[in-house]
Design brief:
Elements (H helix, E strand, L loop, with lengths): L1 H19 L6 E10 L2 E12 L4 E5 L4 H4 L1 H11 L8 E7 L11 H11 L10 E3 L2 E2 L5 E2 L4 H5 L10 E5 L3 H8 L5 E5 L2 H8 L29 H13 L3 E5 L5 H5 L11 H13 L15 E4 L5 H5 E2 L4 E2 L1 H4 L4 E4 L7 H6 L1 H6 L1 E6 L2 E6 L3 E6 L18 H8 L4 H4 L4 E5 L4 H4 L7 H18 L8 H7 L4 H13 L4 H17 L7 H10 L3 E2 L2 E2 L1
Parallel strand pairs: 3-4, 5-8, 8-9, 10-17, 10-18, 11-14, 14-17
Antiparallel strand pairs: 1-2, 2-4, 6-7, 12-13, 15-16, 19-20
Length: about 525
C-alpha cells in the first residue's frame, strides 16, 4: 500500500511540475569542435531543458569521457553559484555519425544548459566553446586543441573562440593569423559573465619578440672546416647527409649544433608543427608552441613504431615529430635492417602513412636526415691513433647494412677525421648565428625559384641546374671517366646548385661541380664505399 502511495505521489508531482514548466526558450544550440583523425570538425551541442523528473542524458555517439560530463557539469554549475534546473536535461551532440571523444565539450554543455534554463543571456551566436570543467567550475586545458581549431578557422560565422586560459598560448598561434578573437577564461563563472556582457579583452601574445637561444655554438668547433661547409650545404639545400667517422671525432657534437643554424620557421610552419605536437601530446608548459624547427635524436634502441608511428589510436613517430626540422640518427649502421628500410617511404614521400582497419592516418614527415656512423664494425678504419681490427669482408658487410635504395636518398656523405692538435689551438670560425644568416639568404634564393634544391624534380633540375661551358665539359669528362651513375649525376647537380647559391652564381661552374662530386664520392653504385 505504501509503495502505491509513493508512486501516486511521484505521478502528481510530475503533473504539477509539467503544468508549471516554462514552454519558451527550452532548447539552446552551442558550437564546439571535435577531433576527427588528425584534424577537427565542427560539433553542435543542443541543450534541451524540458519538463519531467530531474535527469541528465547525453546522446549523439559520445564516448565515456563525454558522457561523464553530466556530473562534472552539474557540480561545476552549482559550485559556480548558479541554479541547476530541477527538470529533465538532454544534451545532443551533432552530427550523430561522428564519434565524440574527450571532455572538452564540458564548457559548451554547461553554457548551453545555463542559456536554455534562462540563467544567463543567450548571446552565444558566433562563439565556439572548448574546455573541460572541474567540480569547482575551473575551466581546464584540453589536449590536441590546435588540430580541433582548424575546423573553425575557415568558418566566417565564427567570430570568437572561448577556451581555457591555460590553452591560450597554443590557441593564439592559429587565431593570430585570422580575424577571430580568442577569449581566455579561468572559470565557468567568468565565461558566463562575459556572455552576460562583461567586457574582456581578447588574448594577445609576444611571439613576434621571440628570440631563439643558441646553447651549442659552431664557433666552439675547432677544425672540421670542410665538415662545417658540408653541413651548411646540407641544411641550406635540404640535402640528406651521412657523417662517417671513428668514435670521438665529433659527429654527435656537430649534429647537436645543427638546430642553431636552421632557418627560421614561417608562421604557417609554426602552426603545422605545433598542431602535430599538440596531437601527439608533446607540448609542454615550457614550450607550449613550436616556434623553432624540431631536432629529433634517434638512437639504436628505437622501434619501427617509435620511428614511423603507430598504436591503436595512431600517433606520430620520430619521422613526423621531425617534420620541418632535423632527424638525427646516431650510429645509423647499428640499426636493424627493418628499421633502416622503414625510412625509405618517409624520405621519398615526405609523409608517414599508418594503416588501420578503420582507415589510414597520414602524418607529415618533411625532415632533413642527418646520419652518423662508424666506418667499420670496430669503428677505427682510417683512424690516426687506433688500429682497425676488421677484415675487408667485415668492412663490406658492415657498410652494406645501408641498402642501395636508402643510400640513393642521401645526397652528401662526408668523412670526419680526428682533429690535429694544431687545429685545436686555431682561431674560432663562424658563429652559429652567422651561419644561420648565410643559410637563410641561400634559402631565400631557392624560395624565389619556387623549390628547395634537395627536393627538386627532374624537370626542375633541368630548368635550374644550368652549367657554364667549362662546367659542362668537366661533368661530361667525369661522367665518362669516373663511371658516374645517372642518379649520382642528379645528386651532383642538386648539391652543386646549392653551392653556387652560396657563391651567388647563376651558372654552375667547375669549382661547384668538383665540390659536389667530392661530397658524393663515398656514394657509388648506391652503396657506401
Amino acid at each position: 500500500m505504501r509503495q502505491w502511495n509513493f508512486i501516486l505521489l511521484r505521478f502528481w508531482q510530475t503533473i504539477l511540475q509539467d503544468l508549471s514548466c516554462r514552454r519558451d526558450n527550452m532548447v539552446k544550440k552551442i558550437k564546439s569542435v571535435a577531433l576527427e583523425k588528425t584534424g577537427g570538425t565542427e560539433v553542435d551541442i543542443e541543450a534541451d531543458v524540458s519538463c519531467g523528473l530531474p535527469y541528465f542524458n547525453i546522446v549523439g555517439f559520445a564516448d565515456i569521457s563525454a558522457k561523464e560530463a553530466s556530473e562534472r557539469v552539474k557540480r561545476a554549475i552549482l559550485n559556480s553559484g548558479f541554479e541547476y534546473p530541477k527538470s529533465r536535461v538532454t544534451v545532443n551532440l551533432t552530427p550523430a555519425y561522428l564519434h565524440k571523444k574527450g571532455s572538452h565539450f564540458d564548457l559548451g554543455i554547461a553554457i548551453g544548459i545555463l542559456c536554455a534554463s534562462g540563467v544567463i543571456s543567450d548571446k552565444t551566436a558566433g562563439r565556439v566553446f572548448i574546455g573541460e570543467l572541474s567540480f569547482d567550475g575551473e575551466v581546464l586545458p584540453v589536449k590536441r586543441l590546435i588540430p580541433m581549431l582548424t575546423a573553425v578557422m575557415s568558418d566566417d560565422n565564427v567570430k570568437e573562440i572561448i577556451a581555457s586560459e591555460a590553452n591560450c598560448k597554443e590557441a593564439f598561434l592559429i587565431t593570430s593569423s585570422s580575424d577571430k578573437k580568442l577569449i581566455c577564461v579561468k572559470s565557468l563563472k567568468e565565461a558566463a559573465e562575459y556572455i552576460n556582457g562583461n567586457d574582456k579583452a581578447p588574448y594577445s601574445s609576444i611571439y613576434e619578440n621571440y628570440e631563439e637561444q643558441i646553447i651549442d655554438d659552431f664557433e666552439d668547433v675547432r677544425g672540421h672546416e670542410e665538415v662545417k661547409e658540408a653541413i651548411m650545404t646540407a641544411v641550406a639545400g635540404e640535402h640528406n647527409i651521412l657523417m662517417i667517422g671513428s668514435p670521438g671525432t665529433g659527429k654527435t657534437m656537430i649534429a647537436k649544433r645543427i638546430p642553431g643554424i636552421l632557418p627560421p620557421m614561417s608562421r604557417e610552419e609554426q602552426i603545422e608543427t605545433t598542431a602535430l605536437y599538440s596531437y601527439a601530446d608533446r607540448l609542454t608548459d615550457k614550450e607550449p608552441v613550436m616556434l623553432r624547427r624540431p631536432f629529433r635524436h634517434v638512437s639504436t634502441g628505437v622501434t619501427v613504431k617509435a620511428l614511423i608511428g603507430g598504436g591503436r589510436i595512431p600517433i606520430p613517430g620520430e619521422v613526423s615529430l621531425a617534420d620541418k626540422g632535423v632527424l638525427f640518427i646516431d650510429e645509423m649502421l647499428e640499426l636493424p635492417a627493418n628499421i633502416l628500410e622503414a625510412l625509405r617511404e618517409p624520405l621519398e614521400e615526405r609523409k608517414a602513412v599508418i594503416s588501420r582497419s578503420s582507415g589510414s592516418v597520414v602524418f607529415p614527415a618533411d625532415f632533413l636526415l642527418v646520419g652518423a656512423a662508424n666506418p667499420c664494425r670496430c669503428g677505427y678504419l682510417g683512424d690516426k691513433i687506433h688500429e682497425c681490427t676488421c677484415s675487408q669482408s667485415e668492412i663490406i658487410r658492415y657498410r652494406n647494412k645501408l641498402s642501395g635504395a636508402l643510400a640513393d636518398r642521401i645526397d652528401i656523405c662526408i668523412e670526419i677525421l680526428r682533429t690535429d692538435y694544431e687545429n685545436l689551438k686555431g682561431k674560432k670560425g663562424l658563429t652559429s648565428a652567422d651561419m644561420k644568416d648565410i643559410i637563410s639568404e641561400v634559402r631565400d634564393i631557392q624560395m624565389k625559384r619556387g623549390c628547395i634544391n634537395g627536393l627538386m624534380t627532374d624537370r626542375q633540375v633541368k630548368e635550374f641546374c644550368i652549367l657554364n661551358d667549362e662546367g659542362e665539359a668537366f661533368l661530361k669528362s667525369a661522367y665518362r671517366s669516373m663511371g658516374i651513375s645517372p642518379r649520382r649525376y642528379c645528386k651532383i647537380l642538386k648539391v652543386a646548385r646549392t653551392i653556387a647559391d652560396f657563391r651567388k652564381r647563376n651558372l654552375i661552374g667547375v669549382s661547384e661541380l668538383a665540390a659536389a662530386a667530392h661530397y658524393t664520392r663515398f656514394l657509388k653504385g648506391g652503396r657506401i664505399m
